Amino acid sequence: MRSKVTKAIFPVAGLGTRFLPATKSVPKEIMTLVDRPLVQYAIDEARAAGIKEFIFVTSRGKGALEDYFDNAPQLEQELRRKGKDELLDILRNTNMDSGEVAYMRQHKPLGLGHAVWCARRLIANEPFAVILPDDVIAADKPCLAQMVEAFEETQSNIVAAMEVPEDKASAYGVLDIKEDMGQIVSTKGMVEKPARGEAPSNLAVIGRYILTPTVLQKLNKKKAGAGGEIQLTDAIADAREEAGEEVYGFRFSGQRFDCGSKAGFLQATVAFALARDELREDLMNFLNDTVYAQKAAQ
Ligand code: G1P
Question: Could you tell me which NCBIfam families the record lists for this protein (predicted)?
């Protein structure tokens, strides 16, 4: 029987030090692109791909995330009283139904692989998705939905992939390509954060995965990898090497923003604002004027 993907893990335990001092009191995932927290983009993408259960792997200081998904009865009442139906709808769309969302604490920052492993009992024996909310992908058909379609065919591990400049490969998990079939590539290995000049290709893993439960078993080994952390990449590579499972790279269509970096976050902010009818014109004018003034001053 063909398996469906209905559960997704959102690792959100990171400290977000690159955004200090903001992240002293605000979880990085609550920081907003235009008017929606990063995590909302991830949730919407998961829903569009048919995900029904949302598992957040959190850590100390992430309380604001749990509150964000709660109902806000007082606020709703106020908006209703004022007849602000549009805002009411927006607000309601962020609510999670009871039982739809689970929070799991990662007690120690032992790496992405460890964060995913923390959710193992909630996944049990099914294929599951992993979404890293830092990687925001603007696409006509959301990235995870594209991958779920591919999974329906392959029924094996799929990781989102994108070509990166050679000198940037060491910041990513990198695929060792067996056969390049265009949108999909089969792999014969993958390396987390390869040393400069040692990357097997320039096809990097981006933060969307559809994985089999075998990967969770491989994470049981708690093997430390790059940076001394338990790496998800290593467990996926082990599922291929030791259990003979296929691991595919999937070149998604869409534009990816690295919202774990300030530059990426700003670029995403501009791109998402330009996509909004009510903001486009003013922002375009402002950007044009600013660029013009900057160039003139040079
Ligand atoms: C993580 C993964 C890495 C992947 C990257 C994509 O790294 O470990 O394999 O390429 O996300 O954003 P991080 O960015 O958390 O260091």
Answer: galU (TIGR01099)
Retrieve residue 32's tokens.
């907003």
Please identify every stretch of the chain with a pLDDT value under 70, giving residue numbers as ranges.
1
pTM: 0.94
| The ligand 1 atom nearest the CA atom of 258 | 12
Range of the domain at 217: 7-260
83 Rama sector, left if φ>0, alpha if ψ -120 to 50, beta otherwise: left
If one counts every other C-beta atom within 10 angstroms of the C-beta of residue 153, the result is 11
* 192 ligand 1 Cβ < 6 A: yes
Q: Distance between CA 175 and CA 190 in Å, rounded?
A: 4
Report the alpha-carbon distance of residue 78 to residue 68 in Å, rounded: 17
Q: How many domains, the chain?
A: 1
pLDDT at site 1? 61
CATH (domain of 195): 3.90.550.10
